[in-house]
Automatic annotation (TrEMBL):
It comes from Veillonella rogosae JCM 15642. This is Uncharacterized protein.
Length: 121
């Protein structure tokens, strides 16, 4: 959970206090089960833990937009670079930047999840 809290703090400057731990755990369990269903497996490969962390952080940010946007020092990221891919989020306000970020993190397109999927025979 500390990785997820740090990811949220890094992107939004919102400090996730212990009162949100049960919400984060619920989102984590739901997203983990969602990925396991896609993979058709009982264990999540360690290589996909970063994907799970981003999805949990994105769900948390999406569900708590109102609280996060009230923070005075909110300066969400406008550019994201992973490997040789760089994405610049458009929009002229904080809400659109936050929405673009969460949409990117929730998207499974371009991820390695299909490499780990097990097929039933």
């Amino acid at each position: 959970m500390d990785n997820i809290k740090e990811l949220i703090r890094f992107t939004t400057h919102f400090n996730v206090t212990p009162e949100y731990d049960s919400v984060l755990q619920y989102i984590y369990d739901a997203e983990r089960q969602y990925l396991l269903n896609i993979l058709n497996d009982e264990e999540l490969p360690s290589e996909l833990s970063g994907l799970l962390d981003k999805r949990v952080a994105a769900r948390f940010i999406d569900h708590h937009k109102d609280t996060i946007l009230k923070e005075a020092d909110l300066q969400p990221i406008t550019r994201l670079k992973e490997g040789d891919t760089e994405i610049e989020f458009g929009g002229d306000n904080t809400l659109s930047n936050l929405t673009a970020l969460t949409s990117k993190w929730l998207s499974l397109e371009g991820t390695e999840i299909t490499c780990y999927r097990k097929l039933k025979w």
